[in-house]
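Example record for the data management plan.
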Amino acid sequence: MIRIVIADDQAMVRAGFAALLDAHPDIEVVGQAQDGVECVGLVAELKPDIVLMDVRMPELDGIEATREILSARSRQAARQTTNPQASKLALSTQDTSAIDDDVVRIIMLTTFDIDDYVFDAIRAGASGFLLKDAPPNELAEAVRVVASGEGLLAPSVTRRVIEHFAAGPQTSNAAALPDLTDREREILVLVARGETNTEIAASLFIAVQTVKTHVSRILYKLDARDRAQAVIAAYESGLVVPGAQV
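Corresponding structural encoding:
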């Protein structure tokens, strides 16, 4: 069951999203917040899997609320870590749960397909985006995609936003991100294209589990919370050039 908190200052929007999501047997809306302050409190109390977060809200906007939520989770994780070598050891195995489990993921709700605040939201740690006027069937699918950790919200919105805002060199740099192996850079480029683990596996003729292991190592080496932040690193380093075919 995917547990959801919805944060939006418009009651009708919250109610509409909740009704659409609760109609799916694998999704449960466990809380609703009318502003960022209330959302931060609900997330701490309810520990949902996904937050649908409006960008513009009173008291505390969606970007600042995202920063507070994810920084609080990071501090909690740091306190619970008693063996710094444990996370490194996990990366050498086929088990990637050390990277993906027990992480709240945030989907930003935005009115515009190119929103001045959206890139700031990625930097704050948001995992994807959803246009408020998107077809209803896309809402549940977006939640499932982000909850699974398989990839960014697909390409139609996320790639345009990233390419529009990503600042960095305008020429491809094969030597970018030197901590990554050649294979990891190759996979990061495909992640930046918006491909899922399954699609990457098919492109490279390797097992899906092998892709998961590589992605986990990429996230660890880049100190990235999830694939969205890894994609930003790919663009800003020049490994992927905005507007170019990746």
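Summary line stored alongside the record: DSSP finds twelve helices and five strands in the chain.
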